[in-house]
Write a structure and sequence with these properties.
heterodimer; A: 198 residues; 7-stranded mixed beta sheet; 17% strand; globular; B: 461 residues; alpha/beta; Aconitase, domain 3; Aconitase, Domain 2; 3 domains
Chain lengths: 198, 461
């Protein structure tokens, strides 16, 4: 599915400093029953965000009007657990284009890259600085520069570089996905399949 | 072993990018596939090798009255979508009511879809289960399901390699589930992220295929994409003569290949751990991730003993209604769940029955016993286990994922405590507000008959 190209993103951020945020929290299993990719943003962090009677939980960060932006800053080991791509869809559909953490779970990170959410892994120290800066001033802005592979805390100018493969970087900057690539090399794949030993 | 299987499936290496990896066998279920099929439709693409994909319904299916129409319209719609997508693209479809229907990671091995040395994927993180056969098997997202359907390939960076060695003899009442929960408690839920694990040592060599599947299934819970165990006689005896296993000359050829899959003595790993199996106790979890596990006779750790986030640890204990430093033994249990792709196989029900035999289910406990497949269900009957279970006050439900992720009606109510043989104790995993303690079938059985967290070793005859 096509997604918007990613280049330089400058935005305030929503801090969620909890560690080990699993994909069951990002979107609980009972909201995975759709057969189309629509409306998942409404159920992002459903059980942390809403009471059983569907009233918002005032203490949860997404319900706090002080915090907003296109960047979600999460605690260590963000996105562990289930492989549900719905978790990445919910984050994208809610309006986030980038998730920042000091450590990502593997499948979640791959899913994000496949659908246009940029996972930015930074050092635990820099993550702490960002959390503190947002705590002090919720309007604190971050700049995520994909071409340069840097993330900058604009209030102080502190920055770090982050890793991304040149292939995935090019995909994100152009809004391409892996299917485009694979479909183009189908004859090579068929040739490979016809020569499999077993 | 890992390199050999991976490298032989690389169609193309992309400079500064992932490998294009050929997938031998692909399994799909109703929850993570509909958007992938929709993607094919929107792009006007077809399934390249329908004979390499197998569909079964499991996540969303009821576990009682499966002969009746599915009551929840959203679930019914998802099941219908899997059926029509499978038919349209010529994919084997084992829907509700089909004799081969069951949990994808239980039926795959049972019918020989799972083979040593193969690459196997499914839109489900517990696909790591199939690594028990010496396959490279891992969970993928829906975009990747679409890639496999239309090109039989996905694009993956090659993971690093980790070996986990466990030698020594396991003690009384210690099962493969305890071994896995022990490893995760040592490594944490992110300790193996970025790695593919090879399990080695006499503890794994002495395990049945069912036990190896339980261990490999839980590889994802320490962050690993997958885990594998070198195929041996136990593996080959299991695989031989199953419906989708190679036959005749093809079998001889396959067998020769399987025998080359070994953990080489001089293989180099990026990380290696060694544990002593004789020190492992029956395990139970006390928190809200699978790494928060402990020997059943121990006390919940104190905040100062825990590495990492104090706030997250406190939040977790608060959710569970537990206090640091207290014992788990004697905690009241409201629900017991045995089943799932982790512990829904015949050996698990044998273990459960061995404890409840001659005893009665505690009155205040609701127990859900859910076989992983119709084959498991039949074995339970044929081996006389059903009589033992009935005599003790238990009933058997029909195959499916059930309360492991509570997508169907099998939900643990808010605030209630469940001892569960499944794989995740995340907040709300088994129903909004549910509180899960992960454990082995023996610990689950001990809880079911006493109504409290109980050391199963005190009940083993």
């Amino acid at each position: 599915m096509a997604y918007d190209k990613f280049n330089i993103l400058r935005s305030s951020a929503v801090p969620l400093s909890i560690e080990n945020v699993d994909t069951d929290q990002i979107i609980p299993a009972r909201f995975l029953k759709a057969t189309e990719r629509v409306g998942f943003g409404d159920d992002l962090f459903r059980d942390w965000r809403y009471n059983p009677d569907n009233s918002p939980k005032a203490e949860f960060i997404l319900n706090n009007p002080l915090y907003s932006g296109k960047i979600l800053v999460g605690g260590k080991n963000f996105g562990s657990g289930s492989s549900r791509e719905h978790a990445a869809w919910a984050i994208y559909d809610y309006g986030f284009r980038c998730v920042v953490s000091s450590f990502f779970a593997d499948i979640f990170k791959g899913n994000c890259l496949n659908i246009g959410v940029l996972p930015v892994q930074i050092s635990p120290d820099f993550a702490d600085k960002i959390f503190r800066a947002i705590e002090t001033d919720p309007k604190t802005e971050l700049e995520v520069n994909l071409p340069n592979q840097t993330i900058t805390l604009l209030s102080t100018g502190e920055h770090e570089s982050f890793d991304i493969s040149s292939y995935k970087k090019s995909n994100m900057m152009n809004g391409f996905d892996d299917i485009d690539y694979l479909v183009n090399i189908k004859p090579e794949i068929q040739e490979f399949a016809s020569n499999l030993p077993i | 072993m890992f390199d050999k299987v991976w490298d032989s499936h690389v169609v193309r290496k992309i400079e500064g990018g992932p490998d294009v990896l050929f997938i031998d066998r692909h399994m799909v279920h109703e929850v993570t596939s509909p958007v992938a099929f929709l993607g094919l439709k929107n792009r006007g693409l077809k399934v390249l090798y329908p004979e390499r994909t197998f569909a079964t319904a499991d996540h969303n299916t009821p576990t009682i009255n499966q002969h009746l129409p599915v009551a929840d319209p959203l679930s019914a719609n998802q099941l219908k979508a899997l059926e029509s997508n499978s038919k349209e693209h010529g994919i084997s479809y084992w829907g509700l009511g089909h004799q081969k229907n069951g949990i994808v990671h239980v039926v795959g091995p049972e019918y020989g879809i799972t083979q040593p040395g193969a690459t196997i994927v499914c839109g489900d993180s517990h696909t790591s289960t199939h690594g028990a056969f010496g396959a490279i098997a891992f969970g993928i997202g829906t975009s990747e399901v679409e890639m496999v359907l239309t090109t039989q390939c996905i694009m993956q960076p090659k993971p690093m390699k980790m070996r986990i060695n466990i030698n020594g003899k396991l003690g009384k009442g210690v099962t493969p589930k305890d071994v896995a929960l022990y490893i995760i408690s040592k490594l944490s839920t992110s300790g193996a992220t970025g790695y593919f694990v090879e399990y080695a040592g006499e503890v794994f060599e002495n395990m049945s295929m069912e036990g190896r599947m339980t261990v490999c299934n839980l590889s994802i819970e320490m962050g690993a994409r997958g885990g594998m165990i070198a195929p041996d006689e136990t593996t080959i005896n299991y695989v031989k003569d199953r419906e989708f296993s190679p036959k005749g000359e093809a079998w001889d050829k396959a067998l020769a290949y399987y025998k080359t899959l070994k953990t080489d003595v001089d293989a180099v790993f990026d990380k290696e751990y060694t544990f002593d199996g004789s020190t492992i106790e029956p395990m139970i979890t006390y928190g809200t991730n699978p790494g928060m596990g402990m020997g059943i006779s121990n006390a919940i750790p104190k905040v100062e003993e825990v590495e990492g986030g104090v706030a997250s640890f406190a939040k977790s204990l608060n959710y569970m209604g537990f206090r640091e430093g207290e014992a788990m033994m004697g905690k009241k249990v409201d629900y017991v769940f045995i089943g799932s792709c982790t512990n829904g196989r015949i050996e698990d029900f044998r273990a459960f029955a061995s404890i409840v035999k001659g005893r009665k289910k505690a009155d205040h406990v609701t127990a859900w016993l859910v076989p992983g497949s119709h084959i498991v269900e039949k074995q339970i009957r044929d081996e006389g286990l059903l009589d033992i279970l009935k005599e003790a006050g238990f009933t058997l439900r029909q195959p499916g994922c059930s309360a492991c992720l509570a997508m169907n009606d099998d939900k643990i109510p808010a605030g209630k405590y469940a001892v569960s043989t499944s794989n995740r104790n995340f907040e709300g995993r088994q129903g909004p507000g549910s509180r899960t303690m992960l454990a082995s079938p023996l610990v689950a059985a001990a809880a079911a008959v006493t109504g409290f967290v109980t050391d199963p070793r005190t009940l083993i005859q």
